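Q: Can I see a sequence and its folded structure?
A: Here is a first one.
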Amino acid sequence: MKKLMNIEPSRSLKGFLAILPFVVILMLYWTASNDRLAENPYDKLLPSFTQISDAVDRMAFTEDKRSGEYLFWVDTGASLYRICIGIGISAAVGLLFGMLSGLLPIFRSGFSPLITIVSLIPPMAILPILFISFGLGELAKVMLIIIGTAPVIIRDIQSHVRQLPSEILIKAQTLGASTWLVAIRVVLPQIMPRLIAAVRLSLGTAWLFLIAAEAIAAQEGLGYRIFLVRRYMSMDVILPYVLWITALAFAMDFSLRKMSELCFPWYHHQEAGK
């Protein structure tokens, strides 16, 4: 008899097991919602699926009477713009300074202690400083994402560069490669898949900082809308927004993973073999 730890489920069973927790959660929610609404039809804590559907139709497919806009899509566009700009700059900064710090000992000696300290500063603690320094516009929100994610990416890239086999770097130098050529032709191809992996790991943190910044100072955005309607306990709006944020984060993560598998198949074969 096989031990439980050695039993590999079939493809169909894997699909069933993946869907099962979501079905259970939906059933539990449906049951709890029906019970609460049976006791109090005006209960707002657990709206019914019909109420949630009506809220989605109102926010996403009905023009707002004041602005004439579809608020759901306006909020989505604003949040996606901010997080894409923030995480894009963080990736570029992380790649540049991570490579320099990992490849150049003299740069690492002066820069690494600073980035270690910066990475330990809670970004939410300096949010008021960002709003005072950069105002209440887009820059402060993007800067919060950068400060919250770039140091982590830098440290990850630096660590990965330092883990590269020294024989590869020595052989390149023996063949006459300069430091710049070693960085571009040897180090960069090796760390690009790791950069994508670091960005994927930073997405959850980036969304957290974005929602927090939008909740405090914004005129549109997914986080802004959630905190705007919470005063009315509009769970029929909050729940779809939370699920939509989760779906967007999953789509971004999935896209990055597929891009990495397509561009760097050797890396994923190597990881699968470990």
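Q: Show me another, different protein.
A: A second, unrelated one:
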Amino acid sequence: MTDPALRDQFRPSDHPNDHFLLTTVVGAAPKPKWHNRARDLFEDPEADFGQSEWEEAKDDAARLITTEHERSGLDVITDGEMRRNEMVEYFAERIEGYEFNGLVKVWGHNYFDKPSVRREVEYDESWLVNEYEFTSKVASKPVKVPITGPYTLATWCFNEVYEDDAELAAAVAKLVNTEIRKLVDAGARYIQIDEAALATTPEDYAIVGDCLETVVDGIPEDVYIGLHVCYGDYSRIYPEILEFPVDEFDLELNNGDYDQLEVFKEPTFTKNLGFGAVDVHTAEVESVEEIKANIKHGLEVVPPERLTISPDCGLKLLPREIAFGKMKNMVQATREIEAELDAGTLEVAD
């Protein structure tokens, strides 16, 4: 069982309620339109828009989204991953051994610059420390650092060197551990490992577990480790994932109308639950009452002191005003649920 005090380090000192449901986001936020214009200019060899201008644009976007997260009332924020292009590409560009060969069609009109591993992977320069240091200086609230996990970085590429994905993932896990150690040295205390691929290839949960053991090796006990798993058949990885060395599982349950909620009731869910209370796939802002009803589903699985409220996944594909509205209403719904728990008007299952 995860120590409740580990999550309480993110509780605001002036929190209005006795009960505390941590609120945060999974990571990626919609980028301002001018951010994308700036990137296009930077990539245009004929435009008078160099590296310094591009860095300034990313700084401005990160500062803006950090502020939006704080204005919405979130307890733990990110910079919305304003410096990142895609969850695999960004890291593959920074890991020695990965190379890019061109776009691969994913679905519809969507393309992904799928990398290849052409030689043994090596750690070069830090991936996220500068991002964290900038955001933590801008923010007045705790900052979470999402980082793509080694299994996803291994399986969402062409492996041309290692015997299989397990061997590649194990090698990448050592690099991720190096990066997290540097983040911790810089002051980070909330790390989220994104293993989007896990629920789509559930037979490999043991590989993910082995990688996570490497990822968290030597990480101080006061560092809170979350694991985000995108939508899939959770029944094929539960309860085995309870053995993973993480403090919190962040799960995409709203996307399936909470049909998979029963999966986590037997056997007992012993970790903290990062609970998707708003849908990132609809461009409509849920009402506070709707979100409160969703949060109550989470309380069927874990008690309040082990429940973290967030959107289902990243909000990056939504219009900015919709993303902000979802976060603001989510926080308001959470605070109202806390008040009802304090008043004893909301019963929680044992």
